[in-house]
């Protein structure tokens, strides 16, 4: 059975995948933090989150270049923590990505329904989802080209917003009123929303195996990606917060068009921003499909999942993993439980971050001679990332106590599956092929 991915990605394409996975978070979601804290309080939350993702991505680049594997975090954890640790890391990645995708698809449906009221939002979400599944099945080269186009358009939309908003900045919108509304608790509650600016950025690791020259291309793609996202996140928030009242931003599903309507009135500019916002959502939907399909493929190839998911077609696309994983995502689209699935997705992300940083520390000690073409400033940078990730875990848990039981249930089912599946397969869980580069 053919289970080898094609090495076609260049640094610019890896950059597009990384930025594209995340960029929808610039267009919506982050603004709900202003229900809990002031713009000043949210700035603190953003700086904490930005510090984490910057230190995390530099640390993650070391892991991805040393182990350029489609399994990404599941492979790092497998080498550091053993087979079970690899499974939990891979499952956490799938939880994050598979449950983020339905939320993005539903947002696409809502945007399309707004522009064309006769089209039901859920139907539009499913059609968009299926369209990008088909594109992914055409192979990584085609998928990467599409991702590059929609990502560049989405970035252009953000620069348009920053450009037309900059002349209308009023700092009183940031400093007026209760400077630290909600106090420390408000900042804590805002952290999960600040995470939306960067959620899924680590997905580029699942494309590492498809890079032409992973040991050189991965650091370039990762570092350029996180730098791009930091600039866009800080610029987008600053312009939106300094041109609009926080009470208005916190009450809308589309903060950027709403901010422009407040400045220039309802007209072509806000409609154009709404239309470009679709490209941001398209980029994230498409990019995350690339991410979770590679994770499912890699886990099947390593023996965690049934082998048929490790099959690739003539274009080098893991077609079975793309289709099956996407069908699971579509089921969540139909449920419409956006709030619950977003929270569970966030828990998966934070679990993944913690396991990955622990894996880095263990591998430095356990395998010091491992070829590391890119080395992070150790141990300070990964330690900062690990400590902030633990803060994230507490913040997300405290902010979503009612959803913790769903998270515990999901992981309990996964653990039961792991032991039953490995028991039924006499050969057990195979070691991941660490020689793939």
Automatic annotation (TrEMBL):
Gene3D superfamilies: Amino acid/polyamine transporter I (1.20.1740.10). Pfam families: AA_permease_2. The keyword Transmembrane helix applies. Keywords: Cell membrane, Membrane, Transmembrane, Transmembrane helix. It is a multi-pass membrane protein. The chain crosses the membrane at residues 12-34, 40-63, 84-112, 118-139, 146-164, 184-201, 222-243, 263-292, 317-334, 340-364, 376-398, 404-421. It comes from Clostridium cibarium. The keyword Cell membrane applies. It comes from the Bacteria. It is found in: Cell membrane. This is Ethanolamine permease. PANTHER family: AMINO ACID TRANSPORTER-RELATED (PTHR42770), MEMBRANE PROTEIN (PTHR42770:SF7). InterPro entries: AA/rel_permease1 (IPR002293), APC_superfamily (IPR050367), EtNH_permease (IPR004757).
């Amino acid at each position: 059975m053919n289970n080898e991915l094609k090495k076609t990605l260049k640094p610019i394409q890896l950059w597009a995948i990384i930025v594209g996975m995340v960029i929808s978070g610039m267009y919506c979601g982050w603004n709900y933090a202003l229900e809990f804290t002031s713009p000043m309080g949210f700035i603190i939350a953003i700086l904490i989150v930005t510090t984490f993702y910057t230190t995390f991505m530099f640390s993650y680049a070391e892991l991805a270049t040393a182990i350029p594997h489609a399994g990404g975090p599941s492979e790092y954890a497998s080498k550091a923590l053993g087979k079970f640790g690899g499974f939990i890391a891979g499952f956490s990645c799938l939880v994050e990505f598979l449950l983020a995708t339905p939320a993005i698809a539903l947002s696409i449906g809502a945007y399309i329904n707004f522009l064309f009221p006769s089209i039901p939002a859920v139907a539009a979400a499913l059609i968009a989802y299926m369209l990008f599944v088909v594109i992914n099945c055409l192979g990584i080269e085609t998928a990467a080209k599409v991702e590059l186009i929609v990502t560049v358009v989405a970035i252009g939309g953000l620069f348009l917003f920053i450009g037309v908003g900059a002349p209308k900045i009023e700092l009183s919108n940031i400093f007026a009123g209760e400077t630290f509304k909600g106090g420390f608790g408000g900042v804590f509650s805002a952290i999960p929303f600040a995470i939306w600016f960067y959620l899924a950025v680590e997905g580029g690791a699942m494309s590492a195996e498809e890079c032409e020259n992973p040991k050189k291309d991965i650091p370039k793609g990762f570092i350029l990606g996180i730098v791009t996202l930091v600039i866009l996140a800080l610029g987008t928030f600053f312009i939106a917060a300094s041109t609009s009242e926080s009470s208005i931003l916190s009450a809308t599903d589309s903060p950027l068009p709403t901010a422009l309507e407040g400045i220039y009135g309802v007209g072509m500019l806000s409609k154009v921003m709404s239309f470009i916002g679709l490209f941001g959502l398209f980029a994230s939907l498409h990019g995350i499909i690339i991410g979770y399909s590679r994770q499912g493929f890699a886990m099947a190839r390593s023996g965690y999942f049934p082998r048929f998911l490790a099959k690739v077609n003539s274009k080098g696309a893991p077609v079975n993993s793309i289709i099956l994983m996407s069908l699971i995502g579509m089921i969540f689209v139909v449920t419409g439980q956006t709030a619950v699935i977003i929270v569970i997705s966030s828990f998966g992300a934070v679990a993944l971050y913690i396991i990955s940083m622990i894996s880095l520390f263990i591998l430095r000690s356990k395998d010091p001679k491992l070829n590391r073409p890119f080395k992070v400033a150790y141990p300070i940078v990964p330690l900062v990332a690990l400590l902030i990730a633990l803060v994230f875990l507490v913040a997300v848990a405290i902010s979503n106590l009612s959803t913790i039981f769903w998270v515990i249930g999901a992981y309990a089912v996964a653990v039961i599956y792991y032991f039953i599946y490995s028991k039924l397969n006499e050969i057990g869980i195979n070691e991941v092929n660490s020689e793939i580069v």
